[in-house]
Amino acid sequence: MSPLVTPPFASRGGTADDDALPELFATTDLGLTPGAYAELLASKHGSGDSIAVHVRLPFCPSRCLNCDHHTTVTHNSETIDEYIVGLEREISMVTDRIGRGLTLNQLHLGGGTPNYLSDTQLVQLMDVLDRHFHVTSDTETSLEANPKRCSPSQLTLLRGLGFRILDLQIRDLDSSVQLAIGRSHSLSVLEDVINSARSEGFETISMDLVYGLPNQSVESVHGTVANMINLNPDRIICQSFSPRPSVFKHQRALDAESLPSLADKVAMFNTASETLMGNGYEWVGLDCFALEHDALTRAKHAGHLHRNWVGYTDRDSGDLYGFGADAISQLREANVQNKVQLGEWHEAVQSGVLPLCTGERISESEQRQQAALSALLCNLELSDYGDLLEDNDLLKELASQGFVEISDDKVSVTEYGRFALHQRWSDASPHYRAARGIALAS
Questions:
Q1: What is the tens place of the pLDDT at every residue in 292-351?
Q2: What is the SS3 string spanning the chain?
Q3: I need a surface site. Which of 35, 193, 330, 438 has the fewest CB within 10 A?
Q4: What distance in Å separates the CA atoms of residue 265 and residue 89, rounded to the nearest whole number?
């Protein structure tokens, strides 16, 4: 792979400013109250459509300084027990309207640290989900996990509960980087976890690499990627870290002087991508690198790669319903974010009110725009964009920034655009969240 073009905004000094990219897909400000959302949910009753579910479990034993999620550090198991009770209340409010027993195309447990839950709590949570949804052998079941908490017995339980994808939250393997963000993972522990997961029958092992962290260098990222490759995960997800200390107060403890420049981040991503592709991993979409046998690689070649709030998937998962504090629901007609603060979320569900923090309807025109972005994020080209150019300035805006090239019959993501879109619309980026129509709540 040839080196990526240096982003033009890198020359303006340091980090890219928030105005460097168009504000794409900010939905029309129609608003969506809990009552209106309840009516929208009820309108879906009887459709029989398969859906996806994301359960947010915002609990951690300690807080990582780079974390860009609203989490709660607790060592009180009763706090988590009460949360599971609240989850069932929220899930009941939704399934009472859309119908119970709908088949799940996709089920994801995100954090926080989902495997911080005890064995009993994990079983209770899955019992709740089984009472309200139909989880089949074909459901894409995944959860994020801290490898330090992945005991052999827990992996046995998780596989027995039906989980097929283990998403190990690594970030980085360099000791100085781990120290700077408050994490620690030894290669020997990771190797043991992966071997145990393989023996238990997990179909996919995924790892994440976050670049742009304190104390990182091009050399250290190369070393981390090399060590990850030796562990032979099926997927490695590369995400860009962009600190937002005004939203996440704990990030103020990061040493700003040790954060890489934007130019350094470009070089880090180049190094990571070249190393991965030189060792049997294929670049899928914008941020995923997967081995040839992986379901995402096969979906890419078959032309049915999809993406939702959870990430890339090999299926059209339909409406995605998020449950829990700060969870996001991504429906065809609306995007909804739950209340961020745990206490406010509890108060709403205990009162029998859908715990919306923000909610916006999506017009038909905006649905087409989001479909276009999804196609670009997945396939890197759009061969049938119909009247999108006439309806709005989306593709023209992307072209003016150098992200895409427009020909008579095709829109293609440029080499620079592949980096820039990944950099700015990765899961860690507020622009990606804005593209989903959700204002990032503080």
A1: 999 999 999 998 999 988 999 999 989 999 999 999 999 999 999 999 999 999 999 999
A2: CCCCCCCHHHHHCCCCCCCCCCCCCCCCCCCCCHHHHHHHHHHCCCCCCCEEEEEEECEECCCCCCCCCCCEECCCHHHHHHHHHHHHHHHHHHHHHHCCCEEEEEEEEEECCHHHCCHHHHHHHHHHHHHHEECCCCCEEEEEECHHHCCHHHHHHHHHCCCCEEEEEEECCCHHHHHHHCCCCCHHHHHHHHHHHHHHCCCEEEEEEEECCCCCCHHHHHHHHHHHHHHCCCEEEEEECCCCCCCCHHHHHCCHHHCCCHHHHHHHHHHHHHHHHCCCEEEECCCEEEECCCHHHHHHHHCCCEEECCEEECCCCCCEEEECCCCEEECCCEEEEECCCHHHHHHHHHCCCCCEEEEEECCHHHHHHHHHHHHHHHHCEECCCCCHHHHCCHHHHHHHCCCEEECCCCEEECHHHHHHHHHHHCCCCHHHHHHCCCCCCC
A3: 35
A4: 43
Annotated binding site for [4Fe-4S] cluster: 60, 64, 67
Q: Which residues are annotated as a binding site for S-adenosyl-L-methionine?
A: 111-113, 144, 183, 208, 328
More confident residue, 24 or 163: 163
Q: Are residues 121 and 135 in the same domain?
A: yes
My answer on whether 307 and 374 are in the same domain is: no
Residues 409-421 pLDDT 10s: 788 888 888 877 7
- What number is the average pLDDT over the span 75-100? 98
Could you tell me if residue 296 is inside a domain? yes
- Of 345, 362, 379, the one marking the end of a domain is 362
Binding positions: 60, 64, 67, 111-113, 144, 183, 208, 328
Residue 15 confidence (pLDDT) above 60: no
Q: Where are the beta strands (DSSP E) in 125-267?
A: 133-134, 140-145, 165-171, 204-211, 235-240
The per-residue pLDDT of the chain, averaged, comes to 86
* pLDDT surpasses 60 at 140: yes
Mark which of 362, 395, 417 sits at the end of a domain.
362
Q: Do residues 270 and 390 both lie within one domain?
A: no
* CATH code: domain of residue 405: 1.10.10
Is 0.90 surpassed by the pTM of this model? no
Whether 424 has a pLDDT exceeding 70, the answer reads no
* Confidence grade of residue 398 (pLDDT, cut at 50, 70, 90): confident
Checking if the pLDDT of 286 tops 70, the result is yes
